[in-house]
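Saturday, quiet lab. Running sequence design on the structure tokens for the scaffold JK sent over.
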């Protein structure tokens, strides 16, 4: 069943486990993600980044896609999540990751998203507050959850670029919740976007603890989010490089640290890079095991795109030749079917261990199965 993300975060907060949130870039990935969450009886938060909406909406240069592309792509992802998660026995939320404008937010809500993030963290504080509040005013009447961001994470991921980080001030986070009425807040506490987070990175759990304690003291019922939290399994790095990739200094956040902060106030843990790497590793292995596919009419261009940049592990950069399959889930032949299966298996391989390690498996029963319409009524009564 599709639910607003707030319902899922409420359960994670109350029962003190980490709720993974996973970025999706194809219909096949959505199907696989819903199925593994169902198998492990875990609530599911699936995410579409603003650039991914542009990609699924037909923008070849998806980093600079038009609002029309984003509208089309949001509907593609919304329809896919509705198809595979709408009648699911587990709670499923679809969340916009790093939305940059009210127009993108509107496109996602129209496309079926049950949660949106507006990222004004690069703006002056008062401008960030104003933009987030504007999104809250628009989204809450639809029962849609709103996540904001305060502080700047280092690293590179889609539209997020920063060479340095600025840690979140716990007292300012309290002020931000009060002024905006947002449901959740992504904080900067030492994580980093992308696959190059640095070896032995230590996240500052004391920032999460202090922020949560200040919120409790002020009676704020809000939820904290950890961005840039991919674990970058070293077996993925080694396999990709052994198969022709060129990943350098690729390290993630230690799982044990994420499990720890999930008990210290962090409710949602965003993961994207792990899935990209798992899918790319599987596809490289497929071509290694079946070299004839490199020259097959169905996959020759795909293989050229795959190997054009050995440092790249983002499937969005090499799947243009099979976009009908990516967007519609249609499999025209056996060769393309093998690629789809590699991507589905990659999603399962990346997600399944984290659902167990973060602690969300067997937790679906704790989530209130509330609709967006019902949540909208609650917001209205509470004057949010």
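Result came back. Writing it out in full:
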């Amino acid at each position: 069943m599709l639910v607003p993300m707030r319902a899922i975060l409420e359960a994670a907060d109350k029962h003190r486990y980490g709720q993974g949130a996973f970025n999706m870039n194809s219909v096949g990935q959505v199907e696989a993600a819903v199925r593994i969450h169902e198998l492990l009886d875990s609530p599911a938060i699936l995410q579409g980044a603003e650039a991914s909406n542009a990609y699924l909406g037909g923008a070849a240069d998806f980093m600079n896609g038009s609002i029309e592309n984003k509208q089309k792509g949001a509907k593609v992802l919304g329809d896919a999540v509705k198809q595979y998660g709408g009648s699911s026995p587990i709670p499923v939320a679809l969340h916009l990751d790093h939305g940059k404008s009210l127009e993108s937010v509107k496109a996602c809500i129209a496309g079926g998203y049950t949660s949106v993030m507006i990222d004004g963290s690069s703006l002056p504080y008062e401008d960030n507050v104003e933009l987030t509040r504007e999104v809250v005013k628009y989204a809450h009447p639809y029962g849609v959850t709103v996540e904001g961001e305060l502080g700047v994470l280092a690293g590179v991921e889609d539209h997020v670029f920063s060479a340095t980080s600025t840690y979140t001030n716990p007292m300012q986070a309290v002020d931000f919740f009060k002024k905006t009425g947002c449901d959740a807040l992504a904080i900067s506490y030492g994580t980093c976007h992308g696959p190059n987070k640095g070896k032995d990175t230590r996240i500052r759990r004391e920032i999460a603890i202090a922020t949560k304690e200040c919120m409790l003291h002020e009676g704020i019922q809000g939820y904290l989010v950890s961005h840039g939290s991919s674990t970058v399994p070293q077996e993925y790095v080694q396999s990709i490089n052994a198969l022709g990739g060129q990943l350098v200094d690729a390290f993630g956040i230690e799982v044990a640290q994420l499990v720890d902060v999930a008990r210290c106030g962090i409710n949602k843990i965003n993961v994207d890079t792990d899935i990209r790497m798992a899918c790319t590793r599987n596809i490289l292995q497929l071509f290694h095991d079946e070299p004839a596919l490199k020259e097959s009419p169905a996959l020759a261009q795909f293989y050229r795109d795959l190997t054009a940049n050995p440092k790249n592990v983002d499937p969005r950069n090499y799947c243009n030749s099979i976009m009908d399959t990516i967007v519609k889930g249609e499999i025209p032949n056996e060769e393309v079917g093998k690629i789809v299966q590699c991507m589905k298996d990659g999603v399962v391989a990346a997600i399944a261990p984290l659902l167990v390690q973060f602690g969300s498996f067997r937790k679906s029963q704790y989530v209130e199965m509330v609709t967006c319409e019902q949540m909208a009524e609650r917001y209205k009564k509470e004057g949010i």
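Notes for JK: The chain has 15 helices and eleven strands. The longest strand covers residues 92-99. Ask whether to fix the surface positions before the next round.
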